[in-house]
Amino acid sequence: MKLYFIRHGLSEMNALGLRAGRSETPLTRKGRTQALVAGQEAKTLAIDTVATSPMGRTLETAKIIAKEISYPTSKIHVSNLLIERDFGPLEGTPWDPDLNIDDNLDIESVEEILNRANLALQWLQSLQAENILVVSHGAFGRALRSLLVADLPFSSPKQIPNAKIIRWL
Description:
Strand order of the largest sheet: 3-2-4-1-5
Distance between the termini: 7 Å
Structural class: alpha/beta
CATH topology: Rossmann fold
Largest sheet: 5 strands, mixed
CATH superfamily: Phosphoglycerate mutase-like
CATH architecture: 3-Layer(aba) Sandwich
Number of helices: 5
Radius of gyration: 15 Å
């Protein structure tokens, strides 16, 4: 199995420099263009399964890419396991890469998101596909990456770029 990951295209909250988390925030025009370009790049990857978070920004990104690679949007796998980290009271606040949020009891802990990423990886493997594209979010992507790439822990680097396809497996 080859596992590809892409963070959704630029959202309105991303463009404003705000922490979105589980808040719904639509893609910007630039975000839609990023998804289109990613879809064109994905044509060479022989993607046979697309899986996404149910959040609007990821679902729209997944559908744009699916259209570009001629993958039926009705066959996109949607899972709550792929949803973004719950930032609790920090949602909607300015994103600060130097802010230590991991000691805040009102947000999803690192242990919780890593456990969820592990469950998501098991679910993805159960799809029995050769080339899976996961469309998700930055913090969740870092959790998934930390399970797949030994020298890239959850804490480093602190951001995954929007709409860039990365192969981790």
